[in-house]
Amino acid sequence: MDKLRVLDLFSGIGGFSLGLERTGGFETVAFCEIEPFPRRVLAKHWPEVPCYDDVRTLTGDVLRRDGIAVDVITGGFPCQDLSVAGKQRGMGEGTRSGLWSEIVRLVGELRPQYVIVENVAALLAGPSERRGGWFGRVLGDLAECGYDAEWENIPASALGAPHRRERVWLIAYPNQDGCVLSYDVARWLLPLKSALVWKPFGAANNRVRVQELAKVCWDDDGLPAELGAYGNSVVPQIPELIGHAILQAIRPHNAAEPMPDGVAPMTPAEAIRRCTTVAEC
Hints:
Elements: E1 4-9, H1 15-21, E2 26-32, H2 36-45, E3 51-52, H3 60-65, E4 72-75, H4 100-110, E5 114-120, H5 122-125, H6 133-144, E6 147-153, E7 167-174, H7 183-189, H8 192-195, H9 210-216, H10 227-232, H11 237-249, H12 268-275
Parallel strand pairs: 1-2, 1-4, 2-3, 4-5
Antiparallel strand pairs: 5-7, 6-7
């Protein structure tokens, strides 16, 4: 099977691409990141992959002109206007979180097989005056593009990280296609959680105790501003888990091993939920 080609929006330092590429079934073909420091990180680790600088000027025509075809769009769009740590201004025009509309525009122009979105858990609940309104907009925008969606709140701690970091993860796909995981795939996914338990990607002596870091990471803490790029990154083990679920979803069911009577196919969200449940993994 050919690798799925990924357009990584709001790329940061590449957490989405790192996790997906670790599955062996995804290949990042373009990044889009506006901040200088993350762009340098991306250039170091993916020197052959083009990096566009502004999602607002990136279009399907630009990508086609550059010979780039896309199967998957990923994006952890800005959370500053959604997070409980911010002012929760929402997703309206002029807000940083309103850049969600650029993901929607590119989905409409490129028609990818899959869209994977990450954001803070507050996206599900806000705003305070109309609970669920933000996420309702996300689902409505995707529906207008002809996409169904599944989602799950997966904290980093579900994969063994030393901090909770609750995030909503959403997978969308064209609604005429559907997307299910067959029974044999679900059984294969059960051991994934133990395989993907938190393992630092850097040297052990570069690790910092989370409790100690939390005490000093403030605007005037004297630490380099680039540290924020790491704090903004997604936890790569979660895109890796989602990537495995997608790869298994698109492989045809083994006709020689039919599903038992009464067992329904599993959706990606159900498989992911099952894999991140400690009791079953």
